């Protein structure tokens, strides 16, 4: 049975806490897989791992009756999104490696049940300056919640279909993307209408009509740059002017973009992109130059997580029962199993 389950395993999201030595992965079974990665953070002089590499999760926490679609990290919490709710898990509790751990808090999504049922939370972003969690929701809205009180602070309502992802920019900026093909740039001090709309499918170098106009992923860096992709090819835009700067891989006509993000939010030093063609992960510069091509076990990559607190660590996950681990942005070191022994 475990072999059959592993064949149909999908990881949708991940989060790191190098301070606590943990990697988390949210899967299609509603579980949070908790990996002890302390040994990966004990590096030799040449950058290699000094101890024995982990092989699989230490515990699998039952987080939801629905898939765990999204995850984001704050210093104290890992926040997960499923269908209809957010949950905050203390890193200190998860570090105990107890499968019976409970969330420190939950927030029920305030959606229109009559029209949308229970909307899923497709993406999450955390603003450390304002302590707000932003959720990209299946009822065409993006919502901002105060993490301390759980109170709904703002609702961004301008998409014409479900919202795939949301990203923060500075203290008051938010960017959302959706199935309607629009990337909306918001100033949350005046949230009634977006300050800018970018439609990647209208760019000749990005448009791929056979795949559609949907935008699956969006991210920002340095308050100045934006990267996005989906049906259109991945592209880098200047956040203030909305101008296209570079086109990124995968650039063929048949591969939807599932990941397009900066490895660091404070600077646009490097970008990772991936799709559903078995081509792995491309690491690119801001100008679009490919600096590394990393293989991935997952044929369809849904999640790339990168952290740099103590050392460089990047993990790549999606369909299948393995998570790839990279100790820098140039090569894949090994892979972890998603099956609990």
Explained architecture:
The chain is mainly beta and 341 residues long. It is built from three helices and 28 strands. The strands form seven sheets. It has a four-stranded antiparallel β-sheet, with no helix packed on it. The protein has a four-stranded antiparallel β-sheet with strand order 5-6-7-8. The longest helix is centred in the N-terminal third of the chain and has 6 residues, at 2-7. The chain is globular, with a radius of gyration of 19 Å. The two termini are 13 Å apart.
Protein topology:
Blueprint: H1 2-7, E1 11-17, E2 22-27, E3 31-36, E4 59-62, E5 70-73, E6 77-81, E7 85-90, H2 91-94, E8 105-108, H3 113-116, E9 121-127, E10 132-137, E11 142-146, E12 152-156, E13 163-169, E14 173-178, E15 183-187, E16 196-198, E17 215-221, E18 225-230, E19 235-238, E20 244-247, E21 257-262, E22 271-275, E23 281-284, E24 290-294, E25 301-307, E26 313-318, E27 322-326, E28 334-337
Antiparallel strand pairs: 1-2, 2-3, 3-4, 5-6, 6-7, 7-8, 9-10, 10-11, 11-12, 13-14, 14-15, 15-16, 17-18, 18-19, 19-20, 21-22, 22-23, 23-24, 25-26, 26-27, 27-28
Task: Give short descriptive properties of this protein.
four-stranded antiparallel beta sheet, 3 helices, 341 residues, mainly beta, single chain
